[in-house]
Write a structure and sequence with these properties.
2 copies of one chain form a homodimer.
Chain A: H1 2-5, H2 15-26, H3 61-78, H4 83-124, E1 127-129, H5 137-142, E2 158-160, H6 161-165, H7 172-200, H8 209-216, H9 227-242, H10 250-265, H11 269-272, H12 275-294, H13 297-308, H14 314-334, H15 358-388, H16 395-410, H17 414-417, H18 420-428, H19 463-486, H20 496-520, H21 525-528, H22 540-556, H23 560-570, H24 576-593, H25 598-606, H26 623-626, E3 639-640, E4 644-645, H27 646-655, E5 660-664, E6 672-677, H28 678-691, E7 700-702, E8 718-719, E9 730-732, H29 737-747, E10 751-756, E11 759-765, H30 766-786
Parallel strand pairs in A: 3-5, 7-8, 9-10
Antiparallel strand pairs in A: 1-2, 4-7, 5-6, 10-11
Organism (chains A, B): Esox lucius (Northern pike)
Keywords (chains A, B): Antiport, ATP-binding, CBS domain, Cell membrane, Chloride, Endosome, Glycoprotein, Ion transport, Lysosome, Membrane, Nucleotide-binding, Repeat, Transmembrane, Transmembrane helix, Transport
Protein name (chains A, B): Chloride channel protein
């Protein structure tokens, strides 16, 4: 039932925004819109407006691609006429590269900006830099000579709020003051973020990836990738991240990059006027987005290919790669983290892993899969509740409430108080001799042998590690609960970082446990071979990374792209096998509870018309069971090719709500001639009555090449052949639906006519297919029970 | 004309092999074969043989996928019947992973074997290890304590042939003796290789990639990936590499991996009985092949995606990745080069590159593009000559002749005498203080400052470098000429390594030139900023790598996968921009001379029915201009659904040579019912006459659901509905060919029926499309001139 209504209400909670569009959709019935410009008679002028799309409609990939080839042919034909035309053709040929370059540059720059601003604003929650307000905590202390390396976070220039207001840094009073200021700032940022989103750009909320997937599959959502969305999303993303909510900036960065791609595509007519070509730019932009989000250009391209893109020709692969690289290089020159890396949590390990460790890695995979399945179910249930009850009407209050709880609970625990990216970095990093983290407070076994810096053999855990374990366990529970309620709030909110944090915490805990097990029981069979006392055999940081990948995999069900993204974070082929083992396990475990990833689940929740390329259609139904009209329906509304009058035609259009009508030879023969679109017919009749003289209500309408022979006194007939699509896709009524679904997916169709022995029987639209698939999925248990 | 005849004569020069198949093809006319098992009436038993393919026919992707889903449904339905059925369904579900794991294991093991064997056999040309014959030169000297590091290649255990036979290692006599033995061994290996190929497995010759592309696109070449081909290709590849011919093992390794994939797929009915599913395994296998050839698992997957695969669902992406990783790990455990790396020429650079250097990098790209275009034209011209003249009849003589010239010319020049992989390694490697190569004989500027080992500042070239430059120039010319004549010989021959060698030589020459320019003219504006005396600003090894990528890109027109492969060789994101600049330039320059890569050119030369997904169809023709029959042709051979007798049907089949026949309602209405295949009809009639009583020549044949009403005395009618494909693909006669081509590519069709207003007009087969595309390409100049 969600599919029918296209209720995007989660995105647009404001009734005044939702209403007109919702009405429009309702009136569309089996909604189909098409462009037929490639078949225009060349003698006639093209009618303005024919070949464009309404908002919230599906594009016709085949026609769009034909349009583009037609445009290309025209430019090529003119090329040799003059130097100016030649320059234009060059500009046209290069515009693809230009637009992806611009997109890459802008995405990289914006990502750098967001990183720096979020970092600064995040530190504002704790204190301020006295001599330079625009420095964050770390930058503030860089100039200080008074601190040692171990205490590099403490310097006189950086004042906590308690230090500034109360004049003292320590003591319960300052703790409470800092606690209060932390909550104050968190709430302010969250309030500002949700207010900006609500007032200026409702589309800026959420991660944006479900909508981008839908748009890339050929749906039109005007304004979703516009300049206002870009501006507000950039600003509110910084605020949302700084507010300390359990969310990440990685998903929204993809949305930001796609906005850049969409905006730049308006500079180039090749892309702005063709919805299919524009989607090539968007595919490249989403690769650039992931590239800057994770510092993984190749991973970004594979993400675009595996997760979001629908139509991905090889040319786009190449350009996506380029955009991802440009974005990565811009971000690296901005160097937002001061570590010459694209992400905060880049790590390098030096210890190999051992075969036995696959067991804990696979256990982490199981945990990731369970977490993913649980998260999807819980989050979707919560979001459905938000949509269906009155409670969803107060998004601002909800955000403030969640932000308040997050801030109150997060502050006391150092692992939840800090920035999630920094937490992940700390969990990923192996304990070296220079590491001052609580997680590395092992009891030293080597007396004074500090010279031997590179090796960090397994040691018994000290009290710091035990304390950290407890805090990590609490942080894990906190993150799990808060993330469920945070994803879906009306602020920009990514899911990658919280998921990774949850996995990293779990992984680190498992890693330390295995490490201690190996230390105390090194005579066990499993450890004896390779893990002697004094050797560095277990890397808890690697467990954290494997756990992070497993949890992210469980939630998103990404596979190759995820492994490649994490591989690019570590820079070593060595650890791909543990990663793959964990990600694969996580996917299989997750799939056992439901095959959808979180993005597909949100797409279905919002009822977008998205035909998933990954989901297999495995039923044995035939086209005639899905097509309309079914036996109980009214007969199919068809037009005859040469015996309707303008009045009759308008009557048919007004009586029905279909988006297009098959044209047949005659009522008797039912043989199919072509397909005409409601929108095109309306535009063409209006155009004719305005421009052509002698067109009356009684004028005969004909779709044939030559006018029919008419009585002498009849008014001038109206030729509508130019808007007739003379190559509609047809299948026979006996075609298995699996083939029909395949055709729709691969060719990007919106409708397909059904014939039997050459006679028109009915029509199947994309929506009919989605409805049928939903029906089949729900009815499956019944079917099996009846058998 | 090549397309029509499918003359594979280059591959199968033996008349007795070519003839029967060639005849078969000729008789096929508009050749189409299809499988329609999914529409079988369930009451009737499936007729054995229906749904299989003949050799050298194209598969029907849509039907194959339907068949697989049907099989899957059956297994799923039975799953809960018994524990045995459940185990079978588990086996079925896991067989995809099992087969790619096995393929990866086998490919890795074979690659390691080939590497070790080729290395040993290659050193046999120069001498022998006295105490252990099975050691190659390097291994032989490992155990020796008498040699210093600089002279690590010289040890008493290793005897050159002159040393062994004449008893002296130095002097003109030994030189001539070594020269002679070098030629002797080279000729022996080459002779043995070509003999084995000719006698046992003619398909083992060449690189195999053009054929694999064709097979993956849905063509059937029986035996091309069989066990004999695998065995002979593995053995002869070692011989061919060792013979010193200008060829590489990388392309053939892909063929070897695909053979493994094909052989293992026979263990699993899911893959052995379904041509479409089998191709998924082959896609994964080709990824594994590139993975072991270049030590680049991700590059391998992208190669499979970009270069060879046709149908690449996401599941295959994931399995390809797995196969590539398994293969890489097996190869790494074998460690054939003793450097813990997968390839000989793995390098790490430590110097950044500077913006100005993009100019020489782009120049290298231009060189690569020119080389690629020249190579393709020259090689294709030579191969065409080989095919069309009597000269192609003596493949053994040709190989021996080329091998003799190669050996004679190669021996005096150290850069051509050595193994090409080693040459590439030497050219890629930067000059460090431990490098003893002639290329690194710079005049030292630092007196005795040996302690400072890591920095290697730019220095003036010494006499060794000048000598090396001359030798490299000669080697470049030699390699260019020999590669043209070598690729296409009847021995396993890859193109990657020779192309990379040519690029690496050119790149190293340019690199040294720029380095010397920067040293002597460091006050020039371009150098002043960043290249002072005593700094290490130019890395000639990087130029070699960029040149290698550019040349490989020019020949194969790969883009992303090539960059990723080379990126995985260097292990640094740093150098992707120079690589991309060079590869892009090379592709554009190459495309200016002809858009085909070498593999597509060879596919066209051999006339395989391959519909390239990359090539755009840009003409404005309509389906009715391409379909047959055209006006001058005899009318379309059709069957009517219920008024033919067995005799008439057999008459139609015998009179025509088409592979399939449309079935219509009646001659008058011409309305389409379905499509029946020649092979299926023949099998069904034979089957009926054998098994059903009362079927005579006068029996009525009907394709309808119910038997037609017949006179009382007529013989029992024959129902053929089970072999009728009731969902043939149709397009209207007005459909632009660009859409038709798109449908054929995306859905993997073999034929499509053309209708007009519901009436059957004609048929378009894949071959018609290829013929039309060839016509359009040839006629283009005329068309423009007439306009």
């Amino acid at each position: 039932s969600n599919i029918r209504g296209y209720t995007l209400s989660q995105l647009t909670p404001l009734p005044e925004i939702m209403m007109p569009w919702s009405n429009y959709i309702m009136s569309n019935g089996g909604g189909v819109v098409s462009s037929t410009t490639h078949l225009l008679d060349f003698l006639e002028e093209p009618i303005p407006g024919v070949g464009t799309y309404d908002d919230f409609h599906t594009i016709d990939w085949v026609r769009e691609k034909c349009k583009d080839r037609e445009r290309h042919r025209k430019i090529n034909a003119k090329k040799k006429e003059s130097a100016w035309e030649f320059t234009k053709s060059l500009y046209d040929a290069w515009s693809g590269w230009l637009v992806v370059t611009l997109t890459g540059l802008a995405s990289g720059a914006l990502a750098g900006l967001i990183d720096i601003a979020a970092d600064w604003l995040n530190d504002i929650k704790e204190g301020i830099c006295l001599n330079a307000m625009w420095f964050n905590h770390e930058q503030c202390c860089w100039g200080s000579n008074e601190t040692t390396f171990a205490e590099r976070d403490k310097c006189p220039q950086w004042k906590s709020w308690a230090g500034l207001i109360l004049g003292q840094e320590e003591g319960p009073g300052s703790y409470i003051m800092n606690y209060f200021m932390y909550i104050y700032w968190a709430l302010s940022f969250a309030f500002l973020a949700v207010l900006l989103v609500k007032v200026f750009a409702p589309y800026a909320c959420g991660s944006g990836i479900p909508e981008i997937k839908t748009i890339l599959s050929g749906f039109i959502i005007r304004g979703y990738l516009g300049k206002w969305t870009l501006l507000i999303k950039t600003v509110t993303l910084v605020l949302a991240v700084a507010s300390g909510l359990s969310l990440g900036k990685e998903g929204p960065l993809v949305h930001v990059a796609c906005c850049c791609g969409n905006i730049f595509s308006y500079l180039f007519p090749k892309y702005s006027k063709n919805e299919a070509k524009k989607r090539e730019v968007l595919s490249a932009a989403s690769a650039a987005g992931v590239s800057v989000a994770f510092g993984a250009p190749i991973g970004g391209v594979l993400f675009s290919l595996e997760e979001v893109s629908y139509y991905f020709p090889l040319k786009t692969l190449w350009r996506s790669f380029f955009a991802a690289l440009v974005a990565a290089f811009v971000l690296r020159s901005i160097n937002p983290f001061g570590n010459s890396r694209l992400v905060l949590f880049y790590v390098e390990y030096h210890t190999p892993w051992y075969l036995f460790e696959l067991i804990p890695f696979i256990l982490l995979g199981v945990f990731g899969g369970l977490w993913g399945a649980f998260f999807i179910k819980a989050n979707i249930a919560w979001c459905r509740r938000r949509k269906s009850t009155r409670f969803g009407k107060y998004p601002v209050l909800e955000v403030i409430f969640v932000a308040a709880i997050t801030a109150v609970v997060a502050f006391p625990n150092p692992y939840t108080r800090q920035n999630t990216s920094e937490l992940i970095k700390e969990l990923f990093t192996d304990c070296g001799p220079l590491e001052s983290s609580q997680l590395c407070q092992y009891r030293s076994q080597m007396n004074g042998s500090k010279a031997f810096v590179d090796a960090s053999p397994n040691k018994p855990a000290g009290p710091g590690v035990y304390a950290a374990m407890w805090q990590l366990c609490l942080a894990l529970i906190f993150k799990i609960i808060m993330t469920i309620f945070t994803f879906g709030l009306k602020v920009p909110a990514g899911l990658f970082i919280p998921s990774m944090a949850i996995g990293a915490i779990a992984g680190r805990i498992v890693g330390i446990a295995v490490e201690q097990l190996a230390y105390y029981h090194h005579d066990w069979l499993v450890f004896r071979e390779w893990c002697e006392v004094g050797t560095d055999c277990i890397t808890p940081g690697l467990y954290a990374m494997v756990g992070a990948a497993a949890c992210l995999g469980g939630v998103t069900r990404m596979t190759v792209s995820l492994v490649v993204i994490v591989f690019e974070l570590t820079g070593g082929l060595e650890y791909i096998v543990p990663l793959m083992a964990a990600v694969m396990t996580s996917k299989w475990v997750g799939d056992a509870f439901g095959r959808e990833g979180i993005y597909e689940a949100h797409i279905r929740l919002n009822g977008y018309p998205f035909l998933d390329a990954k989901e297999e259609f495995t039923h044995t139904t035939l086209a005639r069971e899905v097509m309309r009209p079914q036996r109980s329906d009214p007969p199919l509304a068809v037009l005859t090719q040469d015996d309707l009058t303008v009045e009759e035609l308008q009557g048919i259009i007004n009586e029905t709500s279909y988006n297009g009508f098959p044209v047949i030879v005659s009522k008797e023969s039912q043989r199919l001639v072509g397909f005409a679109l409601r929108r095109d017919i309306t535009i063409a009749i209006e155009n004719a009555r305005r421009k052509q003289e002698g067109i009356l209500l009684t004028s005969r309408v004909y779709f044939t090449q030559h006018a029919p022979t008419l009585p002498a006194d009849s008014p001038r007939p109206l030729k509508l052949r130019s808007i007739l699509d003379m190559s509609p896709f047809t299948v026979t009524d006996h075609t298995p639906m699996e083939i029909v679904v395949d055709i729709f997916r691969k060719l990007g169709l919106r409708q397909c006519l059904v014939t039997h022995n050459g006679r028109l029987l009915g029509i199947i639209t994309k929506k009919d297919i989605l409805r049928h698939m939903a029906q089949m999925a729900n009815q499956d248990p019944d079917n099996i029970m009846f058998n």
